[in-house]
Amino acid sequence: MGSRKETVIQFGEGGFLRGFVDYFFQKLKDQGMFDGSVVIVQPIERGMCEVLKQQNCEYNLFLRGIDDGKVVDEHTHIDIISRCVNPYVENEAYLALAENPDFRFIVSNTTEAGIQFVEDNRFEDTPAKSFPGKLTQLLYKRFKLGLKGFIILSCELIDHNGEELEKCCLQYADLWKLGEDFKTWLTKENDFCSTLVDRIVTGFPRDEHDALCKRIGEQDNMMDTAEIFHLWVIQGDHENELPLQKAGFHVVWTDNVDPYKKRKVRILNGAHTSMVLAARLYGLETVGECLKDEKVSTLLKKCIFEEIIPTIGDTEDNRQFGAAVLERFSNPFIKHLLLSIALNSVSKFKARVLPTILEYKEAKGTYPQGLTFSLAALIAFYRTDEANDDEAIMAFMKDAPVADILAKEEYWGQDLSGLLPLIQEYYDLIEEKGMAAAYDAVLAR
To answer: Given CB 3.0 to 4.6 Å as the disulfide criterion, which of 17, 21, 109, 265 pairs with 155?
Structure first.
């Protein structure tokens, strides 16, 4: 293990990167297409690097799900990580990473809150508290040594993550007065790639840990689990240095991540958000149960294939993505609770479902029945004690008339009173006849 040269710096040791990016590097190595290794940098003061170190930075990953109608259960032993560095206790070792010319890639997933400019970080801090601050310290040392820059693959779940990270680093360069030459090197010699990541990583398998340890014949306290599906859309093209497509992965090199982001938000997230509240009122508990129930799954398919996809583009690609979403939702290894998806449904509905409703109306002159019904279900759900959102939103939604809720521009970004006749009809049906009858009525239309 020690003999392979270190080529990747990875900010983050959580389940997602270990179940996504490290898996790709491992498989590239196993296929003889990558001769490097990964050094993990712990991005926050409290992390899991110590536990990883106790296991020689090795762990086991289980990928499970349904692929092309068949159940897949794949085990991979991951040994691509050479070491972990905690900059909070070994800052010199962290900055020394800049000295190694073999390092070519930086990957990160420091949560949505990780990419932000925090003004009280100082260049002298050991280390800077924010992730972009730490990265700027490393890049500046690299620049002073006259070495090549990096290909930086940002995996945080924010729009234009690579561009936002670069912007933060440039703000630190200004704040710390690191000079115009450094800023030029930062933008010219480094490629901050925005990326879109898509894989449900279920993390440490608490309930099955003992059984899985028995299966592999070893104790593993950093075990990780994820679904089999994956998609990585990367702005830029570095396939020659990182042959992910050649290795058979669903990786897209592109000059624009936005259409892929839109597809994921509208189809995957939109399907989740439009399905869960009605299904919960109907008495179901998990996404898996929804896919087994005839009423719920029929309406879900109607929403995806007759309402969402025709709105964003009825292409073979989008239909395949829609079919993959159904397989992912019916994954028997994932127990995805409806109530956990139901969190903050008002803002989720505005971002994921409402744009499709409005674009469908503009294109076809009528509102899409299934997605419109899901808004009535949202209102009915917020009347119950299971709603979980901002206090003020919950208080308003619990008692306000349907007309007032639809007219609330601060929730929806506009006045939705045009939807009132249809929403009121569905809402009354749910309240008076129950959810089963409401499903039947929508499906009969």
So the answer is: 109
Q: What's the pLDDT at 68?
A: 87
Q: Which residues pair with 231 in a beta bridge?
A: 198
Look at residues 278, 287, 429, 285 and name the one whose alpha carbon lies nearest to residue 345: 278
CA 385 and chain centroid, separation = 28
pLDDT tens for 404-432 read 999 999 999 999 999 999 999 999 999 99
If phi over 0 gives left and psi between -120 and 50 gives alpha, with beta otherwise, what is residue 86? beta
pLDDT at 112: 77
pLDDT value, residue 335: 87
Long-range CB pairs of 65-73, under 8 A, 24+ apart, other chains included:
65/227, 65/228, 65/229, 65/327, 65/328, 65/331, 65/333, 65/334, 66/228, 66/327, 66/328, 66/330, 66/331, 66/332, 67/228, 67/229, 67/327, 69/327, 71/332, 72/228, 73/333
Q: Is there a contact between 299 and 443 (Cβ–Cβ < 8 Å)?
A: yes
pLDDT value at residue 3: 66
Three-class SS state of 9: strand
User: Residue 4: what pLDDT?
Assistant: 83
> What count of other Cβ atoms lies within 10 Å of the Cβ of residue 357?
24
- CA–CA distance from 63 to each of 208, 229, 419 (Å)? 14, 9, 43
Q: Which residues of the chain have pLDDT under 50?
A: 1-2
pLDDT, position 2:
47
pTM: 0.91
Which of 164, 178, 182 lies closest to 117 in space, CA to CA?
164
Q: Which amino acid is at 274?
A: S
124 CB-near residues (< 8 Å, 6+ apart): none
Eight-class DSSP state of 248:
T
Return the CA Rg of the chain.
24
Rounded Cα–Cα distance for residues 367 and 359 (Å): 9
